[in-house]
From TrEMBL:
3-phosphoshikimate binds at K24, S25, R29, S163, S164, Q165, S192, E307, H334. Pathway: Metabolic intermediate biosynthesis; chorismate biosynthesis; chorismate from D-erythrose 4-phosphate and phosphoenolpyruvate: step 6/7. GO terms for biological process: amino acid biosynthetic process; aromatic amino acid family biosynthetic process; chorismate biosynthetic process. The active site is at E307 (proton acceptor). It holds the Pfam family EPSP_synthase. It comes from the Bacteria. Its main location: cytoplasm. It is found in: Cytoplasm. This is 3-phosphoshikimate 1-carboxyvinyltransferase. It is an enzyme of class 2 (transferase). Catalyzes the transfer of the enolpyruvyl moiety of phosphoenolpyruvate (PEP) to the 5-hydroxyl of shikimate-3-phosphate (S3P) to produce enolpyruvyl shikimate-3-phosphate and inorganic phosphate.
């Protein structure tokens, strides 16, 4: 058990430029697409973190050569194969993206992951694969896919209201199914739609024909996936704790390389921060956020951008008025039940947060020192760091859990604060 991390308290406004590593979501999609293309592919600016390492190791376990140099190079291979073991860790992208790909492997593939991963929703993907012709034992991690080297594919109806990753995972592999794939969603609205747009955009960039013109229906034509050099954008969701540092201290923070156009949901943070009183400037080179004297509360539907919730909740705790965060019931199936975790930890520090059916209500109240639990959730850990900038004596029990997507977080945070002087 590691010692709790003393969250640095900001004695002056944060003023810094912070370069964040590559996007988790784009990196892990590019890895899957490269593995499913005949000649592999390369990734420039790939994220190197627990989640991307789990994806690389999963692909290697399926017989795909992956070289991790300056670039990540996915080599050509003779087809995915078992028998093999895949460790999903706590990575939603590994547990939801790899099984649809492994469904065309030759041989058995056994999947498992962290204890919490066994509780994350999974049966939708496995039922869909069964409906498309796969043989699968199990409804959650651990489970075994009995690959036959090909999958008929066709049309499947799923309820993807618990996670957009159910749709993305199926679409990423769908072109390699004999008849391609049509996915219909039937249920409450699918969350995180920008992440599905990211999937569709990357499939098209790899030469796959995708029809997403009908609401809640996606059609992927069968055919090859082209080999490409993927240039990975900075992870905009991982940029948000750093931007939040400027927001809560009345400072100014620049993220270089913020894309002009992107499917990353982190881009919506510009609108949220502006809605809370920040000034946000964006040009073709960078994004700069300047914090106000006092943050205002916000009423925001985060359904499309749920992964921003922990950062936004941290801002809300330090705002001068109430905030309502809506549309995020599906966060109960994330790395931890994020609604329960945020409400519990905020209230433990003396704050006022209430869980609703689909979100959180956070009211201003002075906070005090205390231990902030991360629940093995990288974004809970970074939210604790943001609050600690303004509340003296906050400790985060497991800052190391940030390695899921941002292994260098504590050093980056220190460098950011050092730059403020
Ligand atoms: O496809 C992706 O890369 C992701 C989709 C989203 O999942 P949910 O739709 O389950 O929220 C997001 O929260 C997750 O961090 C990454
Ligand atoms: C929900 C998240 O991760 P995962 O890809 O494991 O679902 C997240 O990073 O906020």
């Amino acid at each position: 058990m590691t010692q709790p991390w003393n969250a640095p308290f900001a004695t002056e406004p944060v003023r810094a430029t912070v370069a964040v590593p590559g996007s988790k979501s784009i990196t892990n999609r590019a890895l899957v697409l490269a593995a499913l293309s005949e000649r592999g592919g390369t990734l420039t600016g790939a994220l190197r973190s627990r989640d991307s390492k789990l994806m690389i190791d999963a692909l290697r376990a399926l017989g795909v050569p992956v070289d991790e140099g300056d670039q990540v190079v996915v080599g050509p291979h003779q087809g995915l194969r078992g028998p093999s073991e895949v460790d999903c860790g706590l990575a939603g992208t590994v547990m939801r993206f790899v099984p649809p790909a492994a469904a065309i492997a030759d041989g058995d593939v056994h999947f498992d992951g962290d204890p919490r991963a066994r509780e994350r929703p999974m049966s939708t993907v496995l039922d869909a694969l069964r409906a498309l012709g796969a043989a699968v034992d199990g409804d959650a991690l651990p489970f075994t896919l009995h690959g036959k080297g090909a999958l008929p594919g066709g049309t499947v109806t799923i309820d993807a209201s618990a996670s957009s990753q159910f749709v993305s995972g199926l679409l990423l592999a769908g072109a390699r199914y004999d008849s391609g794939l049509t996915v219909h969603h039937d249920g409450k609205p699918v969350p995180s739609l920008p992440h599905i747009e990211m999937t569709v955009a990357m499939l098209r960039a790899a030469g796959v024909t995708v029809d997403d013109s009908a609401h809640n229906t996606w059609r992927v034509e069968p055919g090859p996936i082209e080999s490409r050099d993927w240039v990975i954008e900075p992870d905009l969701s991982n940029a948000t704790p750093f931007l939040a540092a400027a927001a809560v201290t009345g400072g100014s923070l620049t993220i270089p390389g913020w894309p002009e156009h992107t499917t990353q949901p982190g881009d919506v943070f510009r609108e949220i921060a502006a809605g809370m009183g920040c000034t946000v400037q964006h040009d073709e080179h960078a994004l700069t956020l300047t914090g106000p004297d006092e943050l205002t509360g916000i009423d925001f539907d985060l359904h499309d951008v749920g992964e921003l919730t922990p950062t936004v909740a941290a801002l809300a705790v330090l705002a001068n008025g109430p905030s309502v965060l809506r549309g995020i019931a599906h966060l109960r199936g994330h790395e931890t039940d994020r609604l329960a975790a945020l409400a519990t930890e905020i209230n433990k520090l003396g704050g006022d947060a209430t869980e609703t059916d689909d979100g959180l209500v956070i009211r201003p109240k002075p906070l005090g020192a205390g231990l902030w639990l991360a629940y093995e959730d990288h974004r809970m850990a970074t939210a604790g760091a943001v609050i600690g900038l303004k509340v003296a004596g906050v400790r985060v029990d497991d800052i190391g859990t940030t390695s899921k997507t941002l292994p260098d977080f504590p050093a980056m945070w220190d460098r950011m604060l050092g730059a403020a002087g």
